[in-house]
Amino acid sequence: MKHLNEEELVELYYESRDAQADEQGSNLHMNHVLAEKHMQQCEACATAYDGLARVLASAEGEPVPERGAEYGAQVWQAIRSSLPVYEPKRRHIWAMWPRWAYAMAGILLLAGTFYAGKIWERTHTTTVAQNARQGRERVVLFVLDGHLDRSERLLVQLSHAADDPGAKSETVSLPLQSEARQLLADNRLYRQSVAQAKDPLLAGALDHLERVLVEVANSPDDLSTADVEQMEKELNTDGLLFEIRVLRARVADQAKERSGAIDRGRTTL
Amino acid sequence: MRNMGNADQELIRRVLAGEKDAYGLLVSAHSEAVFRVAYRITENEADADEVVQETFLRGYRALDRFDSRANFKTWIYRIGVNCALDARKARQKAGAVAIAEEFEEEQVAVQLADREAGPERILLDREIEGRRRKAMERMTESERTAFVLRHMEGSSMEEIAAVLGVEPNTAKQAVFRAVQKLRRSLAPLWVKA
């Protein structure tokens, strides 16, 4: 049988006192019930408990002097004059706002943030789309400029062949035929694209170029300088050369413009 | 208890709103309990009265820092205990602690029957009171406070822990140590019949 130690006896003593004060004894712990049961069977623990209870019962000390019913009022009167009055804390203007106002402000803030995000997203998307379109146009202009450059060189060579004073009656070799054939295929594509872009100047020039390229590509191998000169006059290649140079200058300006627009778009992102 | 707590909270709110006299109601409700604890600690009636006034003065000045979730009774008890301990220390410093007599631990146990009346009983009571006071002197502040609240005021361990600002188990240990000191001092007076 395990005996109760001193700490358990002290606890038992005060719990018994609490239980006496509380008539229903509802505060009794299960350990307390078990300890009491143990003491009924264990003489040693019962003797130890009695000794402790006797010592503690004698240690109540002198009774506390009674204080009358007016004691509280007397204490209050004694200290009242030395107490300052608390000043009611001023409530800040925002503290006086009802809670729903805060909730409404929160909702408005949330909605504002949402719409700002939408606008930003739309602007961002538009800029990207614009940049993509401008990028594509820039590539087209770059390729077109290459095509016009090659065409210009072909026309210059054709012009030189016709202008050779020592070869008026002689047969001229035209190595430009194969070049003309390649240019012809490209030119057809550009002409069809430009027709949709509603650019009459470029469309007219490419149409004119195509007729020249057809003639050059299909010209016989033993073409004389006179024949070349005749072809130049009929097809007005000098005029075409001028048109191409004008177009090339314009295309270069447009390409530069598109490039600047893309850079500005990137800066705004 | 809950209604009492709510009533205290309402009075505190009124005081902080500028109604000074509402504090008078709090003083009336708790001054006697504070006096009892103060008297048990100081063991001097005049000191205990002063402690009560000092306690409610300090309480008023600190009222705007009172946590509204706390129990006012426990809070004012805590201030009261601190004031009482200060008063006791001040009296000890002044060398004016009223101890009935000096007692030697090694003194041979006075073997007296505990239920006998007359001069012997009076002598025994004086002996007991002197030894009890001596034992209280040897207790630490927390032991003395815990013992006074548990043994003399019947406070629960939770209340004592709140007043001391410790865990209930620590408060329980403080009570146990106090009882041990008391028992060592008083046990020699009792003999088996």
UniProtKB/TrEMBL annotation, chain A:
This is Zf-HC2 domain-containing protein. It comes from Acidicapsa dinghuensis.
TrEMBL record, chain B:
SUPFAM superfamilies: Sigma2 domain of RNA polymerase sigma factors, Sigma3 and sigma4 domains of RNA polymerase sigma factors. Residues 134-182 form the RNA polymerase sigma factor 70 region 4 type domain. Residues 26-93 form the RNA polymerase sigma-70 region domain. Gene3D superfamilies: 1.10.1740.10, Winged helix-like DNA-binding domain superfamily/Winged helix DNA-binding domain. Transmembrane segments: none annotated. Pfam families: Sigma70_r2, Sigma70_r4_2. Keywords: DNA-binding, Sigma factor, Transcription, Transcription regulation. Belongs to the sigma-70 factor family. ECF subfamily. NCBIfam families: sigma70-ECF. This is RNA polymerase sigma factor. The lineage of its organism: Bacteria, Pseudomonadati, Acidobacteriota, Terriglobia, Terriglobales.
